[in-house]
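Standup, Tuesday
Yesterday: got the pipeline producing C-alpha cells again.
Today: sanity-check two examples.
Blockers: none.

Example 1:
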Amino acid sequence: MRRFTLPLLAVLIAVAADSAHAQEFFVGARGGVNLATSDFDSDVFSEDVGTLTAYHFGLLASVGISRYFSMQTEVWYSRKGFAEGSSGVSLKVNYVEMPLLLVIKLPTRLSPHLYVGPVLALESGCKATTLNEGEVDCEDTEEGPRPRGSDSGVMFGGGVTLPLGPGSLLLDAFFNMGLTNLSETTDYVESVRTRTTYLSAGFLIPFGRSAR
C-alpha cells in the first residue's frame, strides 16, 4: 500500500505547490457550428436520423488550478436535434447550455488542451417537423417527440490555445453525449437522446492573477 500512497502524495503536493503560483482567471466568449443528431427510437421514423447543422454562442470563464489543470464554466445559446434528410422530418430544440469542464493543459507553444465534464441544458424553444403535420411547436405535435424541458450529458473534446493580442484564441472541438431521454413517450416516439458535435472558436482575456 505504501508503494502507491507515497507517489500519489508526492503528485498531490506538487500540484498544490504549483497551484500557489499558477492561478489565473480568464473571461471570454465563444461561438461556432453544431453538427447535431440523436439516438432515436421510434415506430414511425427511421432510427438512422440525419444531421442538423446549427449554431452555438455564449460566454465562458476559466480559473487556473495549476500549470496543467484549470476549471472552465460556460453558458451557451445552442440548437440541437436532428434532421432526416430528404423527408424533411426534423427536431430543432434551442437550449441554454451550461458545461462545467475540467481542462487538462500541456504548456507548450501551441498549448494543446483536453476537456471533460458534465453539461446541463434548459430548453428555450422547440420545433418539430413531421410528414403529416409540417412544422409545429413541439407541445402541439401528436407524432413527433415532445422534449421535457431540459437535457443533461457528458461533454469532452480538445483544442489548442494561441496567443492573440491581449488574450488567447481558442480553437476547439467538443462532443456532447446526451444522457436524458428528451421525449415524453408517445404512441410514435419512445426515446430521443442528443448527440452533438461542436466546432468552436473562442477568445479569452486574463482578468486577474493571484499574488505570486
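Example 2:
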Amino acid sequence: MQEIVLPKMGNSVEEAEIVKWFKNEGDPVKEGEPLFSIQTDKAEVECESTASGILRRILVPAGVERPVLTVVALVGGADEALPDLSAYGVSGGGAATPVPAAPAAVATVAVAAPVAVASASDGPVSPRARKLAAEKGIDPALVPGTGVGGRVMAEDVEAYAASAGSVKATPVAKRVAENAGVDLRGVHGTGIGGKVTKDDVLGASAAPAAPAAAAPDETPGVKRIPLTPMRRIIATRMCESKFAAPHFYITIEVDMSGAKALRGRTKAFKASFNDIVLYGAAKALREFPQVNARWCGDAVEQVGDINLGMATALPSGLIVPVIRRAQTLSLEGLCAATKELAGKAQAGKLLPDEYVGNTFTVSNLGAYGVDHFTAIINQPDSAILAVGQIKDRVVVIDGGIQIRPIMKLTLSSDHRVIDGSVAAQFMGRLKAILEEAAF
C-alpha cells in the first residue's frame, strides 16, 4: 500500500487546498497521470500520482486545506488489506477527517508530483480540459464547468461533447454553430424530425438573450461572483502583509531619455522598459543588500541571490514568476528570462519552482496608463517597486524648460527591515542607474 502525499512546493508554501479529485475510490491509477488539483497561496496546480494501482481510499476530500506532506490518499492492490485508518483520522468506513500528524508506517510514501499552473484566457480551464477540448474541436468557453469557481474540467468537456453529439443537426448547421459559438443544445430545430438547420442557428445567434431572473436571495442588478480559491488566498495574503508589515512609501521621478536610447540599441533582443527597470533594480540591489532582505521574527536575513519577482495579471488573479539569480544575468539574458516566464504564466505552464523564492518584486501598471500607485509588499520580500507609465512632462534643466519622458517609481518598504534613509539611498541609486542607462 502506498501513501500519496501533498507535495512541498518551496519553503514559502506551507498549506494547500485540494480543489478536485480526478479519480474516485476504486478507480485504477497510473503513475504520472493527474490525480488531483490543489490551490496554494500562489496558484492552482495539478498533481500527478507517483504510484500505480487502485485508488483505495481518499483521505482528504475536495475543499479541505491541509499542511504540505499530509497523506491524502492510499493506492494499492484491489485485494490488498487497508492499514489501520484511525492513524489517518478516519473512523470505520466513514468520511475522512485527516490529521496533520504523521500516520503509522506504511510500505512506501509517494509524494504527488506538481505539474503546472492552471489558467485560461477566457475563464478557468484545467490543462487537461483545454487539451481535450482542442482535440475534439470544442471551444472551452462554451463548456459549463463543475470545478471550484466554475472551473472547466476534463470530464466537463467529455460530457459536453457527448451531449452535443446527440443533437440532430445538418452538417452546415454544425459548422455555422461552431463558428458563431452557438450551443446547438439550446437551438430549436425546425427541420425534418426536429433537426437543427442553418437558419435555426442563424436565428439563435441573432436573437438577444433573455435576461436571467434574479435569484430570491439576490438584489436585482447585483451580480454575485463566488470567490475562487486563488482569489480567497490573494485576499488573505494581502491582508496579512498589509497588517503585519508597517509599510512606508518613497516616490521618485526618473528621466527615461537614456533608457529610450538604450532600448533603441537592443533591437536584436527587444528589451522592454520593464526589462530595463528590472535590470536596473538588480544592479541597485547588489549595492544595497539591506533591501534584498526579509523579516524572520528574531532576525533580519539578507539574501545572497537576487530573485526578482515580476507581478503578472491572469484572468483568475495575480501570480509572480521569479527571475532567479538576476545579478548574474546580462540585459539580454534577463529579457529572455522575462519573456519565457511571462509566456508560461499566460499559457498556464509555470512550474511551482518558477513562482516561489522571490526576494524583491516589481509591479508595473504603466501599460494601463497609470502614472503613480503604491503596491502591497509581496511576502516574504521586504520591498516592492511600483512602476508607472512613461509620460512626456515639462521639466526645468539648468534653468531652461525642456520636455522629457518621465517615469514615476514608488518603493513600498517594510519598516521593520528597511529604514527610511536606506530606502531613499536605494531609490536615488536606482534613479541614477536608469538615467545613465550604461548597461
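Quick observation on example 2: The domain at 2-117 is CATH 2.40.50.100 (OB fold (Dihydrolipoamide Acetyltransferase, E2P)). The chain has nine helices and 20 strands.
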